[in-house]
Specification:
The chain is mainly alpha-helical. The chain is built from twelve helices and no strands. It is a multi-pass membrane protein.
């Protein structure tokens, strides 16, 4: 599994940075088409229209090839998003079943991706972001939305079935519409609101019939919904102009993760002390689980969490 995850990480880096940038051939073709022609060469002047046609065809072909590469690149991000999300749900649930310490697990999951992105910055595979204290202050509310989204989901997943958490989280568009109206004063058409009613009814019906229903799981999932909606709303309001340098989608997610980790760590240690963590570890060992199993499922849940969110930022950044 570690080899598979390592290959997936390399695939993410290659897909992100290994393909040629769009319209390279197009720009090259354009410069050739506009190159000056000496007036002393009449034959070349006569042939120029034909050459222009040939170059136009070549440029069109280059545009089509570049467009295809960009489409494949975007599709790869969405495919990786789906696969990494599956891996996260599996290993997060395994880790929480073994050690029911959701605050500590959420903190670990935020931390695991930080060394990964630090290495990319250090070796030059990704340009490191350059930020001022004011930039960090600007991103702080968005990072808190990111933190609430994560901790709410982890607590909900630990309190009940994975399916139940995703049932409740399906109502996020409703929460987003309500908060957009309250905070931004943005209202949609009655038809749009009408399309949200089946979501409300479906979530309510599915929750009533869910055998693993718990109020903790429900409210934690709703916390995740509200935080995610606020994160999107705050991003629209505070990021109207660029924040810092080299702030690509991947770097934005990395910075939000680092801020969220720094905030969550003391809170997590207050709620789940080192003694609580040790007791959960000892209980898992006493139940027959091995230290290597506990370490692997915990670290893999963090790796999958970081990767699925990073490629989600990359995918949405290409379609928005």
């Amino acid at each position: 599994m570690a080899r598979v995850l390592g290959a997936a990480m390399m695939m993410t880096v290659v897909v992100s940075y290994g393909l040629p940038p769009p319209n390279v051939r197009s720009r090259s073709g354009s410069s050739l088409a506009k190159s000056p022609v000496s007036s002393s060469h009449k034959i070349q002047n006569k042939l120029q229209p034909r050459r222009g046609v040939a170059r136009a065809v070549a440029t069109t072909g280059g545009d089509e090839q570049s467009s295809l590469l960009e489409t494949l690149k975007t599709g790869s991000f969405f495919a990786l998003w789906y696969l990494f999300n599956i891996g996260y749900n599996i290993y997060n649930k395994k880790a929480l079943n073994a050690m029911p310490i959701p605050w500590s697990m959420a903190t670990l999951q935020l931390f695991v991706g930080i060394p990964y992105v630090m290495i990319l910055w250090l070796v030059g595979l990704r340009k490191a972001p350059k930020m001022s204290p004011d930039n960090v202050k600007t991103l702080f509310p968005i990072a808190m939305g990111h933190l609430g989204t994560h901790i709410g989901a982890v607590i909900s997943l630990g309190a009940g079935a994975v399916s139940f958490t995703h049932i409740v989280k399906a109502s996020e568009p409703v929460v987003s519409a309500v908060l957009s109206a309250l905070i931004l004063g943005a209202y949609y058409s009655p038809v749009t609101y009408a399309t949200l009613l089946p979501i409300v009814g479906g979530v309510a019906l599915a929750s009533l019939k869910e055998l693993s229903f718990t109020w903790l799981g429900f409210f934690a999932a709703m916390l995740s919904n509200v935080s995610s909606a606020l994160r999107g709303i705050l991003a629209k309001s505070v990021m109207k102009k660029p924040v810092g340098e080299n702030m690509t989608e991947a770097n934005l997610y990395a910075v939000l993760t680092i801020i969220a980790f720094c905030v969550l760590t003391p809170v997590s240690l207050f709620i789940e002390s080192p003694a609580t963590i040790k007791a959960a570890w000892d209980s898992a060992i006493a139940s027959g689980l091995t230290p290597s199993y506990l370490a692997s499922v915990s670290l893999l849940s963090g790796a999958y969490y970081y990767l699925y969110n990073e490629v989600a930022f990359l995918a949405l950044g290409r379609v928005n």
